[in-house]
Amino acid sequence: MTAADPAVAGATAPAWRPSPAALVPGPLVALVAILGTAWWWLPKVGLYPYLGVEVAIWMIYATGYNLLLGHSGLPSFGHGAFFGIGAYGYGLVQRHVVASLWLDLAGAVLAAALAGALVAAFVSHRRGIYYALLTIAFGQVAWFVSIKWHSVTGGEDGLLNLKRLPADLGVVAVDLNSNEALLAFVLVVLALVVLGCWRITHSRYGRALACIRQNEVRARFLGYPVWRCKASIFVISSAIAGLAGALFAMAQQSAYPNVMSLHQSGFVVMMVLIGGGLVSFWGPIVGATLFILARDLLGAYTETWLLWFGLVFIVLVLFKPEGLAGLGRDLSAWRRRRAMARADAR
Amino acid sequence: MALFEARGLHKRFGDRVVLEAIDLAFDAGTLTGIMGPNGAGKTTCFHCLTGYHRPDRGRIVFDGEDIGGLRPHEIVRRGVARSFQAINLFDADTVLDNVVVALPEVRRRVADAWGDLARDSGAQDRAAEVLARVGLAGRERARAKDLAYGERRALEIALALASGPRILFLDEPTSGLGADGTARLGELVSELKRTLTMVVIEHDMRFLFGLADTIAVIHWGQVIAGGTPRELRDNPWVARSALAEDPC
Prior knowledge:
The complex is a heterodimer of chains A (about 350) and B (about 250).
Chain A: H1 5-8, H2 26-36, H3 38-44, H4 49-71, H5 80-96, H6 101-123, H7 128-148, H8 150-153, E1 167-168, E2 173-174, H9 179-202, H10 204-214, H11 216-220, H12 226-252, H13 262-275, H14 283-301, H15 305-319, H16 323-345
Antiparallel strand pairs in A: 1-2
Helix pairs in contact in A: 2-9, 4-9, 4-12, 4-13, 4-14, 5-6, 5-7, 5-12, 6-12, 9-10, 10-12, 13-14
Chain B: E1 4-13, E2 16-26, E3 31-35, H1 42-49, E4 57-62, E5 65-66, H2 72-77, E6 80-82, H3 95-100, H4 104-108, H5 121-133, H6 149-162, E7 167-171, H7 179-192, E8 197-201, H8 205-211, E9 214-219, E10 222-227, H9 229-234, H10 236-241
Parallel strand pairs in B: 3-8, 3-9, 6-7, 7-8
Antiparallel strand pairs in B: 1-2, 1-4, 4-5, 9-10
Helix pairs in contact in B: 5-6
C-alpha cells in the first residue's frame, strides 16, 4: 500500500479540472481550409501555388522542431542537418534503391531519425548552452560532409533532377508534378504531422516533456526517465525535419548542402520564436507563414529583406520573447480586464 | 532489519571529503531526524541516499536491495521520495497538474504519446485526494508559482506523497516558514508519520524533537551521536554543541 492510498478512501473530486484538448483542433481545420483553397486564391492575390507548397513544408519542419524547442525546452540549433539528411535521403533512395514515393519518403524519415538518434545519444545528458553547442557542432559536421562527400552527395551542386514521383494509392496513382497537386499532397502530410504533434503535446509523454523543460531535477525525482524522454523527442523531431526535407527535395527536385548550413538552421529557430512557439502550439505555423511571406514579398522589393526581418526578430526577442502568440495572449488578457472593468462600472 | 540502511557511506568532491563514513538505519514506520550544523554533510548525505550523488564508497540498501549507484528515477520507482531544501516544483503548471504527473500510474505510462492526460479523471481524483491530505483542497487551479510560501512547501510534499513512496525524505521542510506555517507542517508530518517511514533533516530543534522517534547527529561528515530525543538531550557532546538547546 502506498502513502497516497489512505487518502483514496476519501474519494475527493477536484474543485477544478483541466479542459481536455480538442481531438481535432479548430486552428488545424482553419489551416486546412486556407491552404486547401490556396491553389485558387493565391494567384488572385498575385502569388503562386508553389509558395503554398513551401509554406506548408516549413510549417511541418517548424511544428516538429517546436516539439523540441518550445515544448521540451531543448535548444537544438543545428536542426537543418536533419532537414538536409531527409532531402538527401529522398534523393539517394530514389536514385540508388527504388523510385517509389512512399519508400523514398520512408527512407528519408528513417535516415533523419537514425541520425537524430546518434546525435541524441550524445546530447541528451546535457542542458542549456552545452546542449545548444553540441547540436550546432553536429549540424556543422553534417553540412561539411554534404559538401565534401562528392561521390554520394554531389558536393556543392547537390543531387539534381530528382523526380516528383506519383502518389500510388493502390487504386489510383496521383501525379504530383503540378504545384497544385503537390500542395494538396503536402497539405495532407502537414495535417497529419500537426495532428500527431498536437496529440503528443497533450499526452502523458508530452506532459513529461513539459515537466522536464520546467524542472529536470524534479521530473527525475518523480521517477521519469529524463534521458530517454529527451532522446526520444529529439529523434521524433529529427524524423519530422527529415520528412519536411524530403518534401522540400520533391518540391525543388533537388537536394543541396545549403539547407544544412548554420544560417538555414537559424531560420527555423526564428520562425518558432517570432510566431511564439514558446507559449503556443500554433506559434511555429504563424512564424513559418510570416517568414516565407516576408522572404517573397519583402524580397521582391529589397535584397536586404533578411536584415529587416532580423531587426523585427531582435525587437521581439528583446521586448516580447513569447513572440506574436505572447502578444496575442496579452491582448486577450487586456480585453478581458477591460470588459470586466466596464461590467463593474455598470 | 531496517527498511533503509546506509553503511560506510563516503563521498568526496575533489580533495574535500564531505562524508567520511556514514552509517544510518531507518526502521519501517519510524520518523528519523537528522541534525547537525551547516556544512556538516546532511544534504550531501540525502543526495547520496536518494541517488542525486553517487557515493564513492559504501552500501545503500532499501528493503533488502542494494540501490547504491542506481539512478534517481530508478530509486524513486522502488518507493523512495524526497523533497528539496530549495522548493522544486513545476511552477508554470496548476497545482492539480503538478500532482497528477507525480502519480505512479501516470508515470508508468510515460510512453503513451497519444491519449490526452487531461481526460484522465481518475488521476485527477487521486491528485485531489493527495492535495486534500496536505491542506491544499480548493487550490487546484492556482499556478504553483502563485502559491504562498507555506503552500508551496505543502505542494512539494504532495508531489513526493503522490509518487507513492514507502519512505519519504524531507530536507529542511520548515525552512522559510513562520511559526504558523511550521505548526501546520508539524501537524501534517505527524499525520504522515502514521503511514510512512520518514527521514527529516531539520534545523528547528523544537520541531524535530517533538516529532522524531530517533535522531542522528551528523558533524564533519560522520554520525557523531544518535538515539531517541530524550537520549540525545542527555548526550554531553550534543549538549555542549548547543544543537539541542531548549528543544521543548
